[in-house]
Design goal:
The complex is a heterodimer.
Chain A lengths: L2 E3 L4 E5 L4 E3 L2 E3 L5 E8 L6 E7 L7 E2 L2 E6 L4 E6 L8 E9 L5 E3 L3 E6 L1
Parallel strand pairs in A: 2-12
Antiparallel strand pairs in A: 1-4, 3-9, 5-6, 5-10, 7-8, 8-9, 10-11, 10-12
Chain B lengths: L4 E3 L2 E4 L5 E6 L6 E7 L6 E7 L2 E4 L8 E4 L6 E5 L8 E8 L9 E2 L3 E5 L1
Parallel strand pairs in B: 2-11
Antiparallel strand pairs in B: 1-3, 3-8, 4-5, 4-9, 5-6, 7-8, 9-10, 9-11
The chains are: A mainly beta, B mainly beta.
């Protein structure tokens, strides 16, 4: 079974600074997808970024980028130029290419201070 | 609709009562998923449908939990004889098709409290 581990229960960053959230996963499969979801106080689950395991290039979405290390089974999220609106719970998630279900980590609470 | 709609947003029920949680997916989305999120945890898979067919129910914790999607659109998750341990956020998501190429859209969830 796949597992996703987020070892940082909480992280803090100041506005305009950069922060990196860590995620590791365990799988025996070679074809899969990785995701970061944001859960603000509004309770929504918002997709931030996704990475296909077969792609060597790290995904980037504006201020959000990932560092995908397939051999190390590591998938960290970097948020540049942090904004107050980035404050939220962030979940890392794994999805096999063969199956439809997502496996989530326990989340990292990101606090952003002015 | 424009997004995934879940109702009710909040539900407080007494232990032993049955509850039904509703999910209205994005129009045209074939796949519908149910997840449960306990406080301080990430969402955990319960079950999913393609059209009206339940494809996987391996995440349902016991036989008090059931789900249906009779016309391939709206889905209902039913919990019978609720227990306090059932208290959680129940999230629904839909996707255009099954497959990892298609991203999920999540609803805002139903927060269930069993007292």
């Amino acid at each position: 079974a796949q597992t996703v581990t987020q070892s940082q229960p909480e992280m803090s960053v100041q506005e305009a600074e950069t922060v990196t959230l860590s995620c590791t996963y365990d799988t025996s499969e070679s074809d899969y997808y990785l995701f970061w979801y944001k859960q603000p106080p509004s309770r929504q689950m918002i997709l931030v970024i996704r990475q296909e395991a077969y792609k060597q290039q790290n995904a980037t979405e504006n201020r959000f980028s990932v560092n995908f290390q397939k051999a190390a089974k590591s998938f960290s999220l970097k948020i540049s130029d942090s904004q107050l609106g980035d404050a939220a719970m962030y979940f890392c998630a794994y999805r096999s290419a063969r199956y439809s279900t997502l496996t989530f980590g326990k989340g990292t609470m990101l606090l952003v201070s002015p | 609709g424009a997004g995934v709609s879940q109702s009710p947003r909040y539900k407080v029920t007494k232990r032993g009562q049955d509850v039904a949680l509703r999910c209205d997916p994005i129009s045209g989305h074939v796949s519908l998923y149910w997840y449960r999120q306990a406080l301080g945890q990430g969402p955990e898979f319960l079950t999913y449908f393609n059209y009206e067919a339940q494809q996987d129910k391996s995440g349902l914790p016991n036989d008090r939990f059931s789900a249906e999607r009779p016309e391939g659109s709206i889905s209902t998750l039913t919990i019978q004889r609720t227990e306090q341990r059932d208290s959680a956020m129940y999230r629904c998501a839909s996707s255009f098709l099954t497959g990892a190429n298609y991203g999920y859209t999540f609803g805002s969830g139903t927060r269930l409290t069993v007292v």
